[in-house]
Amino acid sequence: MTGDVWLPIPADEIEGLPAPAEAGLNYRFWDGGQHFPADPADCAFYAVPYMKGTEVAVRPLAAMTRLRVVQTLSAGIDHVEPGLGSLPSGVRLCNARGVHEASTAELALALVLASLRGIPRFVEGMRREEWHAGFYPALADKSVLIVGYGSIGAAIEDRLVPFECARVARVARSARTTERGQVHALTDLPALLPEADVVILCTPLTPATRHLAGAGFLSRMKDGALLVNVARGPVVDTEALLKEVESGRITAALDVTDPEPLPAGHPLWHAPGVLISPHVGGSTSAFMPRAKRLLAGQLTRYAAGEPLRNVVLTTA
After folding, report:
1. Cα 82 from chain centroid?
2. Of 79, 100, 184, 279, which is the active-site residue?
3. Distance, CA of 225 to CA of 223 (rounded, Å)
4. Could you confirm whether 35 is annotated as catalytic?
5. For a Cys staple, 47 with which of 69, 71, 75, 157, CB 3.0–4.6 Å?
6. What is the pTM of this model?
7. Closest Cα to residue 238, out of 264, 212, 220?
8. What is the pLDDT of residues 232-277, one digit of tens each?
9. Sheet holding 167-172, edge to edge
10. Which residues contact 207 (CB under 8 A, 6 or more apart)?
11. pLDDT tens-digit profile of 199-226?
């Protein structure tokens, strides 16, 4: 395997990369800047800049006529999908499975606990020197529904275990059985939603999941339930969510929103019972070491002609 490799991290900062001379690879650093580091036509392996948006991610793709691999550093691939139609056939698209599970699962639990235990109210009370004593919901004895039971969904369940939940139900695109038990199909959601005290969304954004949490979905959630979104903003219908939270029937904790970034003056900022974090599920100190290990491992396999990991599709 030969050709240019575009990396969003300088090659000399990634331990374990194949030696350029031995592997026939030329490492080029590009983190989404205005100027490309070299002719895109010479790029064989493109590691997409992280959290720079669709416009940056797809900008060089049409000119990458020798491309063989697109490697994202995110679990989702929706930000590169608009550019896939311009690629030659046989290009493998790989995601970053294994990079974000720990951080995203941590944040999902943090959002659940903060929302249930009244942490936003306590923070506001500190500012105003107000003492908000009383009884607050616990995660213990709650029924939790995880929608999107891939590696991140499984990592969330790992972290739920010590909290003594009454039940954890799992939903994925299709039904299957795991070591922990049954995974339901998306078609089972209408029956599962009324039983859940906490609903956690961690599904990829696809045509099937866009506005999955729409008016019908939200109306089936039980009174007082909490919706947590660590997936993608458009998985939730924002207008439908606003109607539910403004009525006080349910609450929400959102790491992602639609639109995003959430503009000043948007009603979600001040909606009752809503906690918002600025899409930081994967943006932690755990990201860089795992991202570097992923890139080193993938490029070692690529240089040796071995099968790559995390291949989610191959262009036709």
Report:
1. 18
2. 279
3. 6
4. no
5. 71
6. 0.94
7. 212
8. 999 999 999 999 999 999 999 999 999 999 999 999 999 999 999 9
9. 176-178, 181-185, 167-172, 143-147, 198-201, 226-229, 251-254, 274-276
10. none
11. 999 999 999 999 999 999 999 999 999 9
